[in-house]
Amino acid sequence: MSEHLRTALALAAAGVPPLPLRAGKVPFGNCRTCAKNACGGRPNMKTPGPCHCPRVCHAWAAATTDPNVLNSPQWATAWRQAVEVGYHPGGAALTVVDLDNAAAVAWARDTLPATRTVPTTRGEHWLYQGAMRSVNAVRPGVDIKSSMAYARWLGPGTGALTALPAVVRALAVKEPTAIRTTPQGITVPARAGGGECRHRTPAYLDRGIAMAEQRITAASSGVHATVYRTFLAVLSTHGRCGCLTDAHTARLFAAAQAKGESPRHCTDAWTNALTTLGL
């Protein structure tokens, strides 16, 4: 038995559906019968199913916790040729925030709740408990891998696994329809607050606001969505403790308006973010 197959069986026993990956970190191609999804696809694919092919077909959909399938003769060749083990995060009720470089890791440490981390070749995987839609390039160097996607198995990682937060879910969605409840004359809505402050120094907040300004300024497309997601990230981290002041909010609004956003849109995006987080 190959080392990769042993790893896969251990993952399957823990409820994590694995699959073999060939050179280039990619799944094995479909067999002739399943080429171009001619078979109709497997359950949960975008195309109708089911497919009963016993081979390693349909990429992430091949992942399984069934040891009989993993040990089957139809999979034997794939395991002999495999160079890595992958897994379907969504199938294990997990979400992987794939941070592809040092800048992305720094952003996550300043923006996202702490959770289990796994080192990668160029960055880190942050794992959260809970599944969601998978989306690539939600921001520079950041992909989300969960449902209908696969990730490389690089070890169990370190740290406690925490629940999937709203700030990560928001990265994968477009800004919702604006809530038109704020009077036109108000430029900066009242800030959130009232919770216990968990920040050790004002520098932590200042660094977060500066990174948020930079994220908005760097947006080359999808400015509306970038502004909303940035507001959501700031409020998710700082919105419950009363640290945010009108001056901080004004800095964010100024960065957005410099990218062409109207004051009304800034107000609506902020209000929507508050509503999403229940603040």
Please, could you describe this protein's structure?
It is a single chain. The chain is an alpha+beta fold. It has 9 helices and 10 strands. It has helices spanning 3-13, 67-70, 73-81, 102-111, 166-171, 202-218, 223-238, 246-258, 263-277, and strands at 18-22, 26-27, 84-87, 94-99, 116-119, 124-129, 135-139, 142-145, 151-152, 162-163. A hairpin with a 4-residue loop joins strand 5 (116-119) and strand 6 (124-129). Helix 7 packs across helix 9. Residues 176-188 have low confidence and may be disordered.
Index terms:
9 helices; 6-stranded mixed sheet; elongated; 279 residues; alpha+beta; 4-stranded antiparallel sheet; 10 strands; 36% helix
Shape: elongated
Name the average pLDDT.
84
The oligomeric state is: single chain
**Series of secondary-structure elements, N-terminal to C-terminal:** HEEHHEEHEEEEEEHHHHH
Task: Count every helix, treating DSSP H or I runs of 4 or more residues as helices.
Answer: 9
Can you tell me the residue ranges where pLDDT is under 50 for at least 5 consecutive residues?
A: 176-188
Radius of gyration: 22 Å
Strand content: 5-15%
Percent in helix: 25-40%
What is the number of strand segments?
A: 10
Biggest beta sheet attributes = 6 strands, mixed
